[in-house]
Amino acid sequence: MEVLYNSTRSKINPVKASEAILKGLSEDGGLFVPDRIPALDKTLEELSEMTYGQVAYEVMKLYLTDFTEEELKECIAKAYDDKFDTEEIAPMVEAEGAYYLELFHGATIAFKDMALSILPHLLTTSAKKNHVKNEIVILTATSGDTGKAALAGFADVEGTRIIVFYPKNGVSKIQEKQMVTQKGKNTYVVGIHGNFDDAQTGVKQIFGDKELAAYMDEKGFQFSSANSINIGRLVPQIVYYVYAYAKLLREARITSGEKINVVVPTGNFGNILAAFYAKQMGLPIDKLICASNENKVLFDFFQSGTYDRNREFVLTSSPSMDILISSNLERLIYRIAGNDSERNKALMEALSNGGAYTITDEMKKQLVDFYGNYADEQETAKTIHDLYDRTGYVIDTHTAVASCVYEKYKEETKDTKTAVIASTASPYKFTRSVINAIDSKYDAMEDFELVDILSKLSGVEVPKAIEEIRKAPVLHDHICDKTQMKQMVMDFLGI
Predict the structure, then answer these.
(1) Quick one: DSSP state of residue 483?
(2) Is pLDDT above 90 for 58?
(3) Is the pLDDT of residue 1 over 90?
(4) From the CA atom positions of the chain, what is the Rg in Å?
């Protein structure tokens, strides 16, 4: 049965999956959501016998229903290949009773690779299916990881260009070096004076500029997105939760049908929304544990039912979560509003105009699957230190936020179900914060010297992604004010 995609903000005609992927964002500013959540049509036992690529097909075929089997399998084969440094794509490590799902073994050592390895192939396939003649311009805001993963995925992909905006002083040194050294004739990277929310808002404004869209079309271009607002980003993220459960079952860590908890460090809410979708498909997940850093807007929302971005923006050691406007939460709000686009639109307008909205008690009752908490900077560092001290296992700052919140959850609820913690980035991406948490005596060293120290401490070889950028020349040195983003786009396209 075909799955079509509706906007969260109006009752426009539903579109096919390939059309939703091409557009990225609906014309009315809404996000595309499936008109129903399909149920898994393979048993958990069957899934437990499959490779990552096979699980990916079984999950994604249910959402991308206008792709042929051949098209989808070809996209999956091109995505999950030897660019990942482990054969199983997403290995799990048990430490102190929790299972860390390592989602950072791709080309840019962050979980965004899991989806951004396949999005370029889904997008170019969608363009062919819809007879698109225009060049597709991928426009992306990043809080650190999406940018590099998108750049790596789209670099020199025929028929595409990619423009990435990032907060100039809001990412780690290694994250920035990964982006500004990116090769590819179709790539463009710009640092903005502002934070991630400024970059994300600017990108959304450009998407919503109808005059610009018409002018772009006239010049042979059209926009699409690689952010998790694109349904082609979100669907591949559902896969790894299904795979994690199947792997636990295969290894007899759980019995079939046994419920597990899932812990996700998140700022933009896409990664935990994917776990929510997996649960709705029939995967036996009990609690969805939403872990925030000091930008705890999501924690406050789950506590109070009020989403309020009117607060100080904090730069933390987990910069990919330094976000006050969690775009993907809109998809959940739309759902708990009874798939009522007008009701959802009113809430989003309240957020845009006044910086806050409050959901009804009836809507709040539907959030029972979620638990929210946060970790401050001291707690994050202590979690890295203590886990390393006790087990020798090194985690990055974002994963440490999740690990700390999981400990708080257990203490508060006494719930000891098997837990999967989404480990979203390699510690090598945040070497200074990680090393300082383990032993501050190395603080005076340069970032790339710390890489070698981390390798000695962890016993893990320096990833290829880090070795490649050690001496790589800077190819992108563009910086602009947040008000100049549209002009930067036009300059890059030469229009």
Answers:
(1) G
(2) yes
(3) no
(4) 21
Pull the structure tokens for residue 443. 């603080």
The domain locations on the chain are 92-109+233-463
CA distances from 450 to 70, 171, 269, 378, 467 (A): 45, 17, 31, 21, 13
pLDDT of residue 227: 80
92-109+233-463: CATH number: 3.40.50.1100
- Condensed to tens digits (0 to 9), the pLDDT of residues 441-488 reads 998 999 899 999 999 999 999 999 999 999 899 999 999 999 999 999
Q: What is the pLDDT of residues 399-447, one digit of tens each?
A: 999 999 999 999 999 999 999 999 999 999 999 999 999 999 998 999 8
Tell me: the pLDDT tens digits for 139-171?
999 988 889 999 999 999 999 999 999 999 899
| Residue 172 DSSP symbol | -
Can you tell me the distance from the alpha carbon of 398 to that of 141, in angstroms, rounded to the nearest whole number?
Answer: 19
pTM: 0.93
Q: Which of 16, 23, 73, 112 is catalytic?
A: 112
Residue 27 neighbours by CB distance under 10 Å? 14
Sign, CA dihedral 136-137-138-139, equals: negative
Indicate if 42 belongs to the active site. no
Phi, psi of 451 (to 5 degrees): -55, -45
- What CA–CA distance (Å, rounded) separates 431 from 382? 15
42 burial type by CB count under 10 A (0-12 exposed, 13-18 middle, 19+ buried): middle
Q: What are phi and psi of 279, to 5 degrees?
A: -65, -45
Sign of CA dihedral 439, 444, 449, 451: positive
Q: DSSP string of 402-466?
A: HHHHHHHHHHHH-----EEEEE-B-GGGGHHHHHHHH-GGGTTS-HHHHHHHHHHHH--PPPHHH
Length reported for the chain: 495
Phi, psi of 189, rounded to the nearest 5 degrees: -125, 130
Pairing assessment for the beta strands 32-34 and 5-7 based on DSSP bridges: antiparallel
Cβ–Cβ under 8 Å, residues 423 and 102: yes
